[in-house]
């Protein structure tokens, strides 16, 4: 390689590496770039659950698989707008699984209580879900102290799902 071409190549490589390093945010906190990727739902009606998320909320199947070490267990990633729900089948009916009788009871349970999706207009989402045969557990309701307007529904397994729109989005329309 000619010396000038070699120098040009090394300089270009050094500049490229320097630019790449500047584009990567370095932080002393390794959690600073964390974002939610998926949540897991276990169910004893795997196919029905996959179909519910596809037909009601327009999720699509990203990947399905099994794990040989867990016979009878099927898994799937269903995805919508870069968010994934991992659906995991159980080989037998749930035993001693307590499902909250209503939203109030669910709010008093430990652990994850519901899944929430941010939407552009919760009233339009509510109307669409009702058209799809979904019952609204909580109809469109504004909570000024929280700065949100929201609804709640339940999936085919009784899991609570919230859809919300910041009240500021409605104020911007006025």
Detailed description of the structure:
This protein has 2 domains: 35-93, 2,3-Dihydroxybiphenyl 1,2-Dioxygenase, domain 1 (Roll), CATH 3.10.180.10; 100-174, 2,3-Dihydroxybiphenyl 1,2-Dioxygenase, domain 1 (Roll), CATH 3.10.180. Helices cover 32% and strands 30% of the residues. The chain has a 4-stranded mixed sheet, covered by helices on one side. Strands 5-8-7-6 form a 4-stranded mixed sheet. A hairpin with a 2-residue loop joins strand 3 (74-80) and strand 4 (83-89). The protein starts with a helix and ends with a helix. The protein is globular. The protein is α/β, with parallel strands linked by helices and 174 residues long.
Q: Tags for this entry?
A:
4-stranded mixed beta sheet, 32% helix, 2,3-Dihydroxybiphenyl 1,2-Dioxygenase, domain 1, 174 residues, 5 helices, single chain, alpha/beta, disordered N terminus
Any idea what the CATH architecture of the largest domain is? Roll
Q: Using the coordinates above, name the CATH class of the largest domain.
A: Alpha Beta
Number of domains: 2
Order of helices and strands: HEHEEEHEHEEEH
Strand content: 25-35%
Q: Would you tell me the structural class of the helices and strands?
A: alpha/beta
User: What is the straight-line distance between the termini?
Assistant: 67 Å
Helix count? 5
Regions with pLDDT < 50 over 5+ consecutive residues?
A: 3-17
- Rg on CA atoms, Å: 23 Å
Helix content: 25-40%
Largest sheet: 4 strands, mixed
Kindly report the spatial arrangement of strands forming the biggest sheet. 1-4-3-2
The CATH H-level superfamily of the largest domain is 2,3-Dihydroxybiphenyl 1,2-Dioxygenase, domain 1
Shape descriptor: globular
The CATH topology of the largest domain is 2,3-Dihydroxybiphenyl 1,2-Dioxygenase, domain 1
Give the overall average pLDDT: 83
- Total strands: the figure is 8
